Amino acid sequence: MNIEAFLHAVKVRFNLDPAEARVLIVGLGVTGYSAARFLLNTPIRFAIVDSRKNPPQIDGLREQMPDVPVFSGGFDQSAFDVATHLLVSPGVSLNEKAIHKAMQAGVTVISDIDLFACATDKPIIAITGSNGKSTVTTMLGDMGNTAGFKTAIGGNLGTPALDLLQQDADLYVLELSSFQLERTTALNAKAATVLNLSADHLDRHADMSGYAQEKQRIFRGDGAMILNADDPVVMDMLVPSRSSITFSVQHLADFYLSRGETDSLMQGDQVLMSADELNLEGDHNIANALAALALGHAVGMDINAMCRALKKFKGLPHRMQKVAEVRGVRWVNDSKATNIGACIAALQGYRRKVILLAGGDGKGADMEELAPVVKNKTKAVVLMGKDADSIAQALANCVPTYFADNMKEAVKIAADLATPGDSVLLSPACASLDQYKSYADRGNQFTQAVLELH
């Protein structure tokens, strides 16, 4: 990183002058800690505040940065009163009283993505959407490296964005959440996409319109817009004067799925590869592959190299992951489906009806949206978790519904219902924290229960 160029960029864009600025990092999680490590190597003065008494990164921070002021156990108003800039972690709502008061007083809110954008002149691919972000980001990492680009991936997935600057990269691929985007203004990606939109995080966003507006912020700047032609809300984001590339599994587009005796991934008239060569299940994963191809094409990756990478890509844990086949029944772990849209996408990818395992914390979403696809794509549903009863009411008995107290019981019920040739799909449509440490813990417990069926 060229420190002089970075300091000039933040001064011009954010009026952040090291001689006068006081940056307050709000939230000492993974993102806040990475921002602290980054700022430590600059002349910018900063402090940290966290509402928790013992934030998860506090011990490492005190060891590495003993002179950095840390306010924990609440949002200390005195820390906000002296701040000129707030770097608010994505896990912290901008509606917090102390943050809102500071913003009203004219304090500038920035993000780690803003600092990242000011610190590099290398091309950035930016990816958001309700579903598929991590899969497409990881695909692009493999594609870029196969195509001869030293590619670093991170952001909302894996490595925090600012930590990526330590890698010798030609290209950065960032997965970005709506929470990251709502506080980011400096990003100008060479290629960016909103993969799809469905109800999610409505506990933090007022409504779907507000959620879509935050996602649309990824298109700030003048880079190529990669758009899902199958999602009308995404297509409404098109700026006619901008370079754009479309992808679709339903229609003709720049990159699309051609259905026939053999389904093929296409670019115009050119057959790129057979859909059967993907080691992934479902049409939504074909859409992910097409999106990755479009993004890679926009930054100059060789199409043949990208296809070679796709053919080797095995998918990500807990995302339509094939766990086992037991007595002719296929078991699939899609525990990462923490919202309705992800569950719907998973179900729509099947051509035969499946047994669905779902439930958890619905985060206030309207579960009635599940009913049509559940009716068309499932033969039975096994529900568990906090919102099991409300989901059952929303489905209105459109298919046989069963209840389980835990994952082991849910798997046993599904095993009793399934016959050879069936698929059992864990795609909860809900968050996991009502019963599990994380969606990964939920998926691991599902896998363990399936393996115990042998």
What descriptors fit this protein?
nine-stranded mixed sheet; 3 domains; 18 helices; Rossmann fold; six-stranded mixed sheet; UDP-N-acetylmuramoyl-L-alanine:D-glutamate ligase; Protein-Tyrosine Phosphatase, Chain A; alpha/beta; 454 residues
How are the SSEs placed, and which strands pair?
Layout lengths: L2 H12 L7 E5 L3 H11 L4 E6 L7 H7 L5 E3 L4 H6 L2 E4 L8 H8 L3 E3 L1 H8 L4 E5 L4 H14 L4 E5 L5 H4 L6 E5 L2 H4 L9 E4 L13 H9 L7 E5 L3 H4 L8 E5 L6 E4 L5 E4 L2 E5 L8 H16 L4 H10 L8 E6 L2 E5 L6 H9 L5 E5 L12 H7 E6 L4 H8 L5 E3 L3 H11 L5 E4 L12 H13 L3
Parallel strand pairs: 1-2, 1-4, 2-3, 4-5, 6-8, 6-9, 7-8, 9-10, 10-11, 11-12, 16-20, 17-18, 17-20, 18-19
Antiparallel strand pairs: 12-13, 13-14, 15-16
Major β-sheet annotation:
9 strands, mixed
Total number of β-strand segments? 20
Q: Which CATH architecture of the largest domain would you pick?
A: 3-Layer(aba) Sandwich
Q: What is the 3D shape? A: globular
The low-pLDDT segments are 201-205
Please estimate the helix content.
25-40%
Q: Total helix count?
A: 18
| Beta-strand proportion | 15-25%
Estimated radius of gyration: 23 Å
CATH class of the largest domain: Alpha Beta
| Largest sheet, spatial ordering of strands | 7-8-6-9-10-11-12-13-14
Assembly form of the protein: single chain
